[in-house]
Design goal:
Oligomer: heterodimer
Number of helices of chain A: 13
Strand order of the largest sheet of chain A: 2-1-3-4
Distance between the termini of chain B: 62 Å
Largest sheet of chain A: 4 strands, parallel
Radius of gyration of chain A: 17 Å
Largest sheet of chain B: 6 strands, parallel
Largest interface: A-B, 66 and 64 residues
Number of helices of chain B: 22
Number of strands of chain A: 8
Helix content of chain B: 40-55%
Chain lengths: ~240, ~475
């Protein structure tokens, strides 16, 4: 099977390790992985702030790059949502672009969904003897309905101690542009989340969206809370090469 | 008037009583709601049904409103069509003056808040007395509701007791029953002396002309039955076609709002007192209020927002509302439904921040009993805000320019890669805190309460191309 990676701009520029981990997992499972360097962003920052024309330009570029891909795998819930749910809406008035967007949307999968539902993987063979908890990213959970897949994969990690936190499905406060338009609300919501993470007793908080992780990590570091953030891909790639 | 949420955030975060009450409401009300909903096996089916009934009704609103009017007239009531809030207010003031009414008792009505009825009545020397306990409290305090179901949510028991001691001469007590009894005793007098009762409307049934008002305190029952005149204020979107729909809507509304199975009272009113009846008003007026609603009705994308049945579940579940409370919104309607309705009822330029004051987490859509896609509507409002702002030729928007440049870069992969390399150099030069140190937004806003990770030495694409070669 051949998979085209969409690494997302934040992973590319801020957290390349998440991209490397994604690639490592897929290769281990015998998937042929390709990375088209024409890829950039899904357009979400413009779309979420109301700059629809700018978002459309970037979406069009994405559709060009991925027009011929069989499976597109994305280590991000919100970017997958942008492609699968919002691209067709962006092209509501352009039927040929819309059907291309819908077609590409059907071929696009968030990483945990691809592993569980497409490949039928139960474990990646990772081992991580630590206490972890999982934060449900909003778009992944509510737009794509993905909550059991990442949990199953986490539970299957050897020697892991997985503990659910209270209010695991409550927004962490990131919200894209919201985080800088309303920084005080955003971080107050994040502080609640940090409290629940700590309440779970976890030393690592796992999530499938870099936005949430960057926001939470920023708060954890600023407040010197001894909890680390980790992307699901990084956790699932903790196996011997 | 332009309302800005950002101006009110700091004080909301610093208000310990508010924060404590919000936390309790978040845990308790939501818990009750979830319990009550889980008892209904076909909840999802009912939501779909209600959404469809609302969509159907809105698609034929004039027809259903006319039918409602006919039925109300048949029952001896009168119907007033008010295009604006001002028209509705003027009618009430004129009627009160004609009948020499100096005092009115009021049931809780968010629509009366929307049209600023109390202020207008006071200016006309008519005394409005709020009879819902929460509304009574905030009226005494000279404040506005901070939650559409629990208007005094922002107040502590002690603050309310102190208020009663100061304003009503109550003997100091911390006992809730005593505080309630004080209000009850005083309100009882008003029910007996006021000659006009004004209430809102939860539902109005087109086929029967029945006005339905739910409540828990019995104050609505008294407001509509004791005074000579009952005036019901109704947004035109509140009509439903048939009585049989009512069973569904009551179930959805009440379980979503308070987690009760049913409220203590469900008032179903059919016009003024008939000759063989013992109680009820001598005159009944239904005021059908537009106040911006037909503008929304004509807007295909936004029409669904008129399906809102004002249960408040979206407020209770909203992490933004739970963080700043209702007053910070600076508008009659708050939380997700306020973020949606405020710019729709006024304009995006008068409420420029409402649609943006959401992380778009979608929890509101998840609990909405009529499935209004609030996040989608907020996104569309953001789009309209930007396009309206940018149409004004004179206005230069830095944000717009940044977005245009950004889109260009994202469509030019090699430029994107090069800018990434430069950013890493800048980040390194900036030292320990990286680019976050730059005293410009968005960095400064991000860094206010959190750190920004340092950029890695190489991007993914650089690592990948190294590996491939």
């Amino acid at each position: 099977m051949k998979v085209s990676l969409f690494i997302t701009c934040l992973v590319d520029q801020f957290f390349p390790q998440i991209g490397i981990s994604t690639m490592k997992i897929l290769r281990k499972l015998g998937v042929e992985v390709e990375f088209d360097s024409r890829q950039t962003c899904c357009g979400q920052p413009a779309f979420n702030t109301g700059y629809v024309e700018e978002a459309r330009q970037v979406a069009r570029h994405f559709l060009e790059v991925y027009g011929d891909s069989d499976h597109i795998v994305v280590p991000s819930g919100s970017c997958s949502t942008m492609i699968k749910v919002f691209f067709p809406k962006l092209f509501a008035e352009d039927s040929s672009q819309r059907s291309l967007a819908e077609e590409i949307g059907r071929r696009t999968f968030e990483l945990s969904e691809f592993l569980s539902s497409v490949l039928g993987v139960e474990t990646t063979g990772a081992r991580f003897p630590e206490v972890v908890t999982y934060h449900d990213s909003c778009h992944l959970l509510r737009e794509l309905g993905i909550s059991s897949q990442p949990r199953q994969l986490i539970r299957a990690v050897e020697e892991i101690d997985f503990r659910e936190m209270e209010h695991c499905d409550r927004c962490c406060g990131f919200g894209g542009a919201f985080s800088v338009k309303f920084p005080d609300i955003s971080t107050a919501m994040g502080a609640d989340k940090v409290g629940w993470i700590q309440g779970s007793g976890a030393r690592y908080v796992i999530a499938s969206d870099v936005g949430c992780l960057m926001h939470l990590r920023g708060l954890l570091e600023r407040n010197r809370v001894p909890v680390q953030t980790m992307h699901l891909a990084e956790l699932l790639a903790k196996f011997e090469d | 008037m332009v309302v800005k949420i950002s101006a009110n955030v700091q004080s909301a975060l610093a208000d310990e009583t508010l924060q404590g009450n919000l936390r309790r409401a978040f845990v308790d009300t939501l818990h009750s709601r979830n319990e009550a909903v889980s008892e209904v096996p076909n909840w999802e089916e009912l939501r779909d049904y209600a959404r469809d009934v609302k969509a159907h009704t809105l698609s034929r609103l004039p027809e259903y409103l006319q039918s409602l009017e006919e039925k109300v007239l048949e029952q001896g009531g009168k119907v007033i069509w008010a295009e604006t809030g001002q028209e509705a207010v003027q009618f009430i003031v004129d009627l009160s003056h004609r009948r020499e009414i100096r005092e009115v008792v009021k049931g809780k009505s968010m629509l009366s808040e929307e049209i600023h009825l109390n202020e207008s009545l006071e200016r006309a020397q008519i005394k409005p007395v709020e009879t819902d306990l929460g509304e009574y409290v905030i009226q005494l305090a000279g404040e506005k509701p901070s939650h559409l179901v629990a208007p005094a949510l922002h107040k502590s028991r002690k603050q309310i007791a102190d208020l009663f001691v100061q304003e009503l001469g109550m003997a100091p007590t911390g006992d809730v029953l005593e505080i309630t009894a004080t209000a009850r005793k005083l309100l009882r007098r008003h029910f007996l002396t006021a000659r006009m009762g004004i209430t809102g409307v939860n539902f109005a049934v087109a086929e029967t002309g029945t006005i339905v008002i739910v409540e828990n305190e019995g104050n609505v029952g008294l407001s509509v039955a004791v005074p000579e005149i009952h005036i019901a204020l109704m947004g035109i979107e509140k009509v439903i076609p048939r009585s049989r729909d009512l069973a569904v809507f009551l179930k959805l509304l009440i379980r979503s709002a308070t987690g009760q199975k049913i409220t203590s009272y469900v008032n179903c009113l059919s016009g003024p007192r008939r000759s063989d009846e013992l109680d009820g008003p001598q005159e009944f007026y239904l005021i059908l209020i537009d106040n911006g609603r037909t503008k929304i009705l004509a807007d295909d994308f936004m029409r669904e927002s008129l399906s809102c049945i004002r249960c408040g579940a979206c407020l209770n579940v909203c992490p933004v509302y739970q963080t700043i409370g209702g007053h910070a919104y600076g508008s009659t309607y708050q939380g997700p439904l306020g973020a949606m309705l405020t710019p729709l009822l006024t304009s995006v330029s008068e409420a420029p921040e409402h649609a943006f004051a959401s992380s778009l987490c979608g929890a509101c859509h998840e609990v909405c009993p009529v499935k209004i896609p609030i996040p989608q509507i907020l996104l569309k409002l953001r789009e309209r805000f930007q396009s309206e702002r940018n149409q004004k030729a004179a206005s230069f928007s830095l944000e717009k320019l940044v977005m245009q440049v950004w889109a260009r870069v994202m469509c030019a992969p090699s430029l994107y890669a090069r800018l990434g390399r430069w950013a890493r150099i800048v980040d390194k030069v900036c030292g320990k805190r990286g680019m976050g140190r730059l005293p410009v937004p968005p960095f400064s806003r991000w860094m206010k309460h959190r750190d920004l990770p340092a950029l890695p030495p190489q991007s993914f694409r650089e690592l990948y191309s190294k590996e491939v070669s």
